[in-house]
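Hi R.,

Here are the chain sequences for the assembly we discussed:
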Amino acid sequence: MSMAVTSGTAAEANPLGRPLFNPASVALVGASNDATRTTGRPLAFLRRSGFQGTVYPVNRSRAQVQDEQAWPALAALPEVPDQVFVMTPTDLVADTVQECVELGVGVVTVLADGFTESGNSGWARTRQLRKLIDGSATRIVGPSSLGVVNLRNGLMLTANAVFAEADPLVGDILAVSQSGSMIGALVSRGKALGVGFASLVSVGSEVDLSVGEICAATLDDPDIRGYALFLESISGAAILRRFAAAAAAAGRPVVAYKLGRSSAGAELAQSHTGALAGEEEVSAAFLADCGIARVRTLDGLIEGVSFARRVPTVPQRRAPRIGVVTSTGGGAAMVVDQLGVLGIDVQPPSAETFAKLAERGAPARAARIVDLTLAGAQYEVMRAALETLTQAREHDALIVVVGSSARLQPETAVRPIIELAGAGLPMAAFLAPDAPQALAALTAAGVPCFRTPESCADAVSAVFSRRLREVAVTTTGAAANGAQAAGTGGSRTTDHVVDENTAYQVLDAIGLPRAAAVVIDGDQVPELPFSYPVVAKVLSAEIPHKTDVGGVVLGIGDAEGLHQAMSSIRRNVASHRPELPRLPVLVEPMLSGLAEVLIGYRIDPEVGPIVLVAVGGELAEMYVDRSLRLAPVDLVTAREMIAEVRPLRVLEGFRRRPAADIDALARAIVSLSQLTQRPEVRELEVNPLLVRPRGHGVVAVDALVRISEPDPDAPLPEEVAP
Amino acid sequence: MSMAVTSGTAAEANPLGRPLFNPASVALVGASNDATRTTGRPLAFLRRSGFQGTVYPVNRSRAQVQDEQAWPALAALPEVPDQVFVMTPTDLVADTVQECVELGVGVVTVLADGFTESGNSGWARTRQLRKLIDGSATRIVGPSSLGVVNLRNGLMLTANAVFAEADPLVGDILAVSQSGSMIGALVSRGKALGVGFASLVSVGSEVDLSVGEICAATLDDPDIRGYALFLESISGAAILRRFAAAAAAAGRPVVAYKLGRSSAGAELAQSHTGALAGEEEVSAAFLADCGIARVRTLDGLIEGVSFARRVPTVPQRRAPRIGVVTSTGGGAAMVVDQLGVLGIDVQPPSAETFAKLAERGAPARAARIVDLTLAGAQYEVMRAALETLTQAREHDALIVVVGSSARLQPETAVRPIIELAGAGLPMAAFLAPDAPQALAALTAAGVPCFRTPESCADAVSAVFSRRLREVAVTTTGAAANGAQAAGTGGSRTTDHVVDENTAYQVLDAIGLPRAAAVVIDGDQVPELPFSYPVVAKVLSAEIPHKTDVGGVVLGIGDAEGLHQAMSSIRRNVASHRPELPRLPVLVEPMLSGLAEVLIGYRIDPEVGPIVLVAVGGELAEMYVDRSLRLAPVDLVTAREMIAEVRPLRVLEGFRRRPAADIDALARAIVSLSQLTQRPEVRELEVNPLLVRPRGHGVVAVDALVRISEPDPDAPLPEEVAP
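And here is the predicted structure of the full complex:
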């Protein structure tokens, strides 16, 4: 099978695929004789499902397990199993993994907990596992994994009780979950919605194989046509990103539900950027930039993959054109309303198309939606409407909302949807009444069908919010290096804030305009290379908020005033921070702009470099509006970011204010985002960046920069992370 | 039956109740012989359901309809029917209604459309209908009503196709919908979720009976224990509000789903208040102030009533304390996350309670939720946990999330929930897998059970967001007068903006501090009663945005400067608005505050007087944060409003800024909200209101006031509304 892939991780015939999903043999280490116990379930499930591979129960103290022969140890098996499911207590895991490495087992899936989530002792165990497999061909799923399931070959290598059922619905979606219990929830809910899965993996704490690498292992599996991810955090960001790009190239959508939308975040960084860019927004930007459709409803995750498959993942620089056709006004209104809440305004057909609809016997009052209520739920009417709208080519996708006929007479309004599903216009259906048979018929026919207006709007919005930006993968931070590289690339470093004058030199290096500045060390006021009035600020890396310690004097009119200001600043700072030495003062001209903007850059420990735009000024953190992207960004993206921050509309000119230099602001954002070329810069925030009238540029008048330096005494990031 | 009711509308033995829901006889005017046609369905449905009352098909041209005797006219019937369902074409409706009035029919339900939604001719028909019933005992449901259903007595007086089914699930909820098709969607979806309805009404265009009055007609119906409303708009606001208060007093919750959350609104008023207070926020404030739980998911509407019934509707001035117990970490995390998005932080039990849990065999790591995953899904564990948490009295409600055992072994974790449902702590359940039997068992046992994490969080949040403020019903505007009084009380008036000096007099009358001001008509600069610097502003009711026409000069230092400023203003205004005469100039002292706030008041055409707080200043409309309530408000509510506007946190003191006079701001909001006493004031916006340091008060430095005056030539509001 030929397929466009962009990464070595996703090469053809991925070596992980066979042991992980199609093992010829599996061993169950610690298999219990009691089929109802957690450690007894996998054997019972594998037998019930009729798995055709060889299954070896391994039990140190029993010769028989569930009426089958058991082996005392892996070494005693007649062959080396492709995959081993380790169900021993935590303390025995390392020995078993070592045995697997020695035998050359392909995949070890570990059920026990007590690793990354268990403090220092857990991290010690984690490092031990990683060391054991280092350089070997053995890979680990978990620990804390509830297992690996392949519904196509009966590989029920899981302790999740839901898989006790005999008749799963087999489909073409790979579900990968950071929550073990969710693989059971997904498979049972999918079955109720008529959505089948091909395989499901509980990744646990990802000490080795992360979500992205497990997904990538199926890129050469022709039966898998989409991915559903249940995420608690973004781990292995670079690998996930490469996988997502490869999946998009192969026409396989990735849909993700991610927890943490309301987490306040533990971050209390000194700089505003840290405080502003809460983890949720970073994740959201990351997923969107990866081309992953991020849903906000559980049903949207299950029902959304099929819709995503119908919509090409092309970089789209305009609002999606979603049309709605309905046989029920109220039902459609709910979807339209919810889409609007999510930022998508449903687009009406043209007057010409409304005229054609009337001609063809599907008359509807010209409005935002095509409401066929008056024409009635009739086959001919719905068919004519769908044909007409498909031919009109005015929409990127069509949502068909069907009323009571969906429950009672699916041959009227539902049948035409199935017939025209492949006609060229992506379609999704929402059924207003409970209509399980119509829902199943639509889903079986490949028409994405949603049970609630919220999941319908959610999935449509998520699918059309994918950006799939081609951001160059840099050498900076986590995004390049995957799960183990969180934080500072796995090496021992410390970060420190530099003083403002040094920060200005970083701005100079990336070509970001900033105020002229003179550093005065002594008491004497030198000749300044700019004219008064000026501003004087204490210069120290130790004082993040200069105004809080009386370290800033504005509007100084002459040399005498500057002399007084310097004395005043030093007196104030000495009283607040007596431990600091006598400090230099930075003097700049007083500048003004039409608006104050905050632009920020930092290397996020999870997703790598990000860039941020928000309202600037002293009260920046009072406002929630901001826009965030993976860095670097181009000018088009920078302009999109500016447009996303509502209060910055003032830049376009408001009432009688002149328009500001948005082009220069966009260029500044692009320059800032190029910090990916300087991996030692961990964080840079300009606040405020003064934006002047059009043609007059921007100028930074304050900056905070955090630099990392090698430090052999620093702890490894994984030692402090939990 | 004795019951606390607060309104005459909701008197005992409501005279509407019998003809509307328990008619001894009904007539079907325009009944078709074809049972599959819309006008044939009601007869077929009534026969299938076994309705025990007398049914009279009325058909001008047939002696028999669906093998039954038909009558040629209402006058030919052997008795006066209690309710008449009119299924004639639009043009024949008035004649039939007239006949009903003459006969003394209690309720006429009208199917035809072509009334309020059909422009001027429709409004003419509407007025005709209202005139026909004026002073009579006959009431109208509709037009555009799909009918009235009482599942308890088989009254299937509806054309909604879903009611063709023979086995509806009968429950204790009255569903009232402004969308006719939704009564079918609700009843079919409710059945799938195990939630039954007692009655359902499609209210149509509410030319007479509005949602509130129809609901109130069941306050003496002992079988109805809650209300589910599907709303497209708020109509008959005052009646709805009185009903909601009576329902709350009777312990019957009202849950509403309302469309229009994303509507941009048609409002392009001159003042910012109009632009800021989009219809959605007005509706949201109205419903919350009425004590109505406003849900945002369709499932939440169906599943939420039962939960609402368990939570007392008391005015609550603190965040709700919601606890979560679970046998599945991932499933619970979705609910916790979604609750957080909706503003509710799940509250952990105390350390003492965690210790008790461990003692009683339900050990859980101390965290935000009680996660029993490790202890396993066992009956004893879940029972001990629920008992302990009930006894601890640390929560207002408990959400129990059950994992795969809900599907496979409901006797373990699900049974204890049912057993302890009545133990004193309101409980709701969310089942992570698809578990229809456990869901049905919980629902049947009276435990609110949710199918998705989103509907669970939605309903819990909606129920705890009810305020049930006791706002005095005033004589002002729509809120006092119900559906027919929209806009200006049904009378002919015009609104006009007054000039700023007149606006200041309104502020004086309500005791809201404002800047001193002098009006200068001529060219001479008089002695001012305040010192320079001053600000000069053109004074005209015709110029809403003075800065837009060069009509403001700030920071004028002396009399000579003022003279020049007056000339400059008059020249600027003359060039922008040459049609205006030479205008006076208003002069005020230059004042400053710690912050600029916008406070607004207006009489909303739907819900009556409202009051609003937002960030002030020239860029007010760039920010979305604001808080809105029905007026009048008290000091406690005013303080809550200030706290809801995030950027106003700066008032509390920020970095080294002093704290502002929040008390004075709260008093100003209360004063403004007292405008309900002056019904001629339709709108008043102060922007900015300067808030000074604590103890130094607030001062308005600009105000926009709109006054209504009787105008015999003005159109009636209903003539312009559509």
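The radius of gyration of chain B is 30 Å. Chain B is about 35% helix and 20% strand.

Let me know if anything looks off.

Best,
T.
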